[in-house]
Amino acid sequence: MKKRELFLPGLLCLLLSFCTDVRAQDNSRQPAKTTSQANGSISGTLVDSLTGKPLEYATVALLQQGTTQAVNGTLTDDKGNFILSGLSLGQYDLTFSFIGYAAKTIRQVTLTAGKPQVAVGNVKLAVSGATTLKEVQVQALRPTITQEADRMVVSIEGTALAAGRTAYDVLSTSPGVFIDQEGNIQLNGRSGVTVMLDGKLTYLSAQDLRSLLEGMPAENIRNIEIITNPSAKYDAQGSSGILNINLKKNTQQGVNGSVYAGATYNGKQYGYSGGAALNHKTGNWNTFLNLDAARRVGGRNSTFDRVFKGAEESVYFDQVATEDFRVQGPPSVRLGTDYSIDERHSVGVMGYFMTNKLNADFLTETYLGNAPGQPTQFIDADNFRENRFTNYTGNVHYLGKFDTLGTQLSADLDLVKIRNRGDAYFYNYFHNLADGGPATQDFLFTETPSGFDIISAKADFTKALSRGRKVELGLKASSVASDADSRFFFNNGDVPQPDLARTNHFIYDENIYAAYVNWNSNLGERFSLQAGLRAEQTVSEGESLTMKGSKKKRSYLDLFPSLFLKQKVNEDYELNYNYSRRIYRPNYGFLNPFFAYRDPYTYWLGNPNLRPQYTHSFGITQTYKKNYSLALSYQHQQDVISEIALIDAETSTTIYTIGNVDDAKNLSMTAVVPVKILKNWDTSNTLVIAYNEYNTMVDKQQVINDQVYYMLQSNHTILLPWKLKAEINGTYQGPAAYALYRIDPRWWVNVGLKKSFMEEKLEVSVNANDIFHTQHLIVSADVGEGNVSDWDQYFRQRNIGFTLRYKFSRGAKLEERKRNNLEELNRTGG
């Protein structure tokens, strides 16, 4: 890595000074100690209906009025008291449950601007010989989906969807989300999605991010936030919104956790996974350790057909390709601890380490000729690739809460180091079919070491004001240093000889300085407003050390406004209006001007002259009865970053590169409709209809590619006899357009079955994906008049998996009682 100066100490000193000053002011005021943070609250006391004695550690669930979907919950204390804080204004139902007592519900508890705190007094529970929560358990079959002003929250904690699955599985079945086989994510038919973990950027490529998500059990996830129009609080990077995965926080005293093991088979390759999650909470310390190991396997079977239209004659290119890969390594380790200084201040650290090795082969057989079905040349090309990926991530954070209304300060320092060490061998054998002459060969070799060093620091301050108003302020600074050294060699002799034309050493540094302000306010009882402005200064420098005069420096300041208006038409119907401006900076791989080799006739070339892409996004979301939503959105993108095809008919070569083309437009509608078919059969359904229009360049000619796209996702969860839970996920995608590609319709069905044993401590899950073998990717590309580029690829999505998980807890008996009641709350879908 190129040596660079650290630019963050000044900012960190400023944050430390600010934290110290705020805490000093806080101590001087000496407010009453409390853990409440919000404007609205509901409190009361739970007692035995006969004796009047308080019921300790009973479950209190807060439900959206008229539903059985929990949006909040707590346990009573040792005196039977409870308080639910952080509540928005509106109507709720309260459900109380405790082992040995009949459940009870208080309906239509109303919080208003004039009375945001409500006390329900003593709530009496009657003894019951056999109290169950069967109805609530059935409701938890599907995730709870809550529509907020600027996001949709999919809560999966405690649901059947989380059992025996990975974070990748859950994310890919979230409303409007589609993940392709390379790990690229689309949201409502649009690419350019940013993925975050606990509100923090992952800094991973699409393939590396997929590896991370596939190695993360879904049971570690609390909820997924789908933010189609992010507010000014978030980084402006990304053209299609944010998917934020929030992990569970341990609340149980003592030691608890789980261990798991699993296996998969795709008809050709075997894979496995295993790991453990361990939590320990005692006193002011809360520590966790996650270990996840896996051998992930996959591949593809493909056919590629091309026609190169020449001035005098055409060349017909027919290729069959097979790819196999496996990725494995020692267990990834995620270790962290939080220390509560007092009830209002906490600090913590987290470290993550993952390393794995990729082994892959890409074998092709290519026929070339001047007439269809009459080849004159045959090329047998065998590519073998290895890569060692390593990710070191560290985080230090602070959280301070300064009053009962929600005033708080948080600060984070993130350090990330990513390393790739790869090499590849290319063995090409050329056979002349026309005259039967001797075969020739061309052997090549590449070394591709690369890496990133990332430092990021941010501070966020929230000040709650009277009458439901709130202001949010924040600062952030980040620095990324990228170093990619791609070395190409001719490997036809005893000693590899450097190929200087295709060798490149590229260094790229980027610093981003950001500040934002967000204003939240109630505009009467029916309207609420959130308005924000984010400023980001980008300073970058890229240079190819093997190309003279290639240094490029850039410095630009951009403003990113956002606006959200929420209208409560009545108790059942809400409208959310939103607008935001976003930026999509080209990633470092796109900027690197090196040749990526696939076969003698196919290359990929980076472009250091890429400019950032900007997006204006408008949306209206309608929500009915808290569960049904219809979102309409329009995006206008400027300086679109798109793949471009360069055709050389004389050599039958296709070079794919990235460039800025004209504007793109997207109009979409997303509907989320949960339907309960039977008492034990619940479904969540998502329909996406979108119009996409792309302007791109092919052989220096402008090409318009547009298409009406639709996608239907239907997730079914069924409670069967003998406490079996079945899950069916079906997806249908209509024809689609992306950049210069047109994609044929396709569909697939995944099924799963789960059974619990030993009082739900042991879970066994079986999953089968793409059971009908229909998830083929059939693509055609518009590559100029008379030229053809079509392919059909299947990425071995059909597979079967088996997972065994055991949960354990070694807390005190009192804590065991807490755990049992809290699990009942989790089953309500909260």
UniProtKB/TrEMBL annotation:
Main location: membrane
InterPro entries tied to this protein: Beta-barrel_TonB_sf, CarboxyPept-like_regulatory, OMP_b-brl_3, Plug_dom_sf
Span of the signal peptide: 1-24
Subcellular compartments: Cell outer membrane
Keyword Signal attached: yes
SUPFAM superfamilies: Carboxypeptidase regulatory domain-like, Porins
Gene Ontology CC: cell outer membrane
Keywords from the UniProt entry: Cell outer membrane, Membrane, Receptor, Signal
The Outer membrane protein beta-barrel domain, residue ranges: 401-806
The keyword ATP-binding belongs to this UniProt entry's keyword annotation: no
Protein name per its UniProtKB record: Outer membrane receptor proteins, mostly Fe transport
Organism: Pontibacter chinhatensis
